[in-house]
Amino acid sequence: MKTAHIFPAFIHEYLGMETDVVKSYGVDFQSYLQQATEITGTDLTGFDIETNNFLDKQLESQYLSYIYGCCVSDLMHMKNHLPDYVTSYSMGIYAAAYHCGCYDFATGLTIIKTAYSLVEKYKPEEPCGMASIVGLSLGDIMRIIKPIKKLVSIGNHISKHSFLLSGRLEHLEPIIEAAKADGALQARLLNITHPYHSFILKKLFSEFLNILLRTKEIVAPQYPYVSSQWRNIIDDKNKMKYEIAFTVISPIRWQATMEFLLKKETTTFIECGAGESLYKIGNL
To answer: Where in the chain do CATH 3.40.366.10 domains reside?
Structure first.
């Protein structure tokens, strides 16, 4: 009987009561926003969880997801609710690494800012993004993208019939139409303008990794961290640095990650972030 703490990526839809929940246990979300504002130089204090008024600002959205994840992490430690395993979905890795004690609050924010600046540096000039397709099989997806498989990546194999694709918009848009014609239950562009989890960004990996390897503030995880790329357990600081850097460009295998944890006798999964995106994914 094991417990896994899982951390979501940046949140597109909040429930609206997240800050009240953590505040009821003595964790003040607003104070974290103030600290993050001072550390990053980006004013986050005006964030409104009910309207999600920073939704169209991707760096700020990553900060906010990380900040709330850190709030939940601190609450879990305060209540001594400790995990047997920790994992993360996409850029939820930043809060997951904080939860594992790999670095402090400020270092995580700096890593997010560095990663984002490198994505900006290495992304193509052409408009890029990510698309969600639900209701088709892997075979269906591979058949649709076959003519341009070197131009579009499966950024996330979420479940048996749910996928995220990453690439340039000029390639994603016809794939969306083809998926709809094939009977997809959902096929749409996400509100993301960067090709995360794609080979398109492969040039940033070495630079990002070298920065992380020089970051002395990063230490080994205190809890077993399960890689959502490789489905192995990371317990070494340099392997964790590699995992953080690789997550930006590597496809996620979320279904396989959950199956790995189930094989490890994990019976309880706690979503340590705002919204309920991972809960919904688990029911696809």
So the answer is: 2-122+199-281
- pLDDT bin (cut points 50, 70, 90) of residue 150 is confident
- Rounded CA-CA distance 62/123 in Å is 17
Q: Give the tokens for residue 110.
A: 């700096």
Task: Tell me if 124 sits within 8 A of 190, measured CB to CB.
Answer: no
- Angle, CA of 114, 117 and 118, to the nearest 5°: 90
Contacts of 106 (CB under 8 A, 6+ apart): 35, 39
DSSP for 32-77 reads: HHHHHHHHHSS--TT--TTTTTTTT-HHHHHHHHHHHHHHHHHHHH
CB 108 within 8 A of CB 66: yes
Tokens of 155: 């950024």
Helix, coil or strand: residue 228? coil
The fold for domain 128-189 equals Alpha-Beta Plaits (3.30.70)
CA distance 259 to 210: 32
Residue 150 is which amino acid?
K
Bridge partners for 164 per DSSP = 132, 156
Strand order in the sheet with 85-88: 233-234, 225-226, 85-88, 2-7, 266-271
The answer to whether the predicted template modeling score (pTM) of the entire model surpasses 0.90 is yes
**Which residue, chain included where needed, has tokens 């489905």?**
231
- CATH C-level class of 2-122+199-281: alpha beta
Helix (H, G, I), strand (E, B) or coil at 270: strand
Contact 233, 266 (CB under 8 A): no
pLDDT digits (tens, 9 = 90+) for 170-194: 999 999 999 999 999 999 999 899 9
> Measured on CA atoms in the order 259, 260, 266, 268, is the torsion positive or negative?
negative
What is the greatest pairwise CA distance in the chain?
Answer: 54
Parts of the chain belonging to CATH 3.30.70.250: 128-189
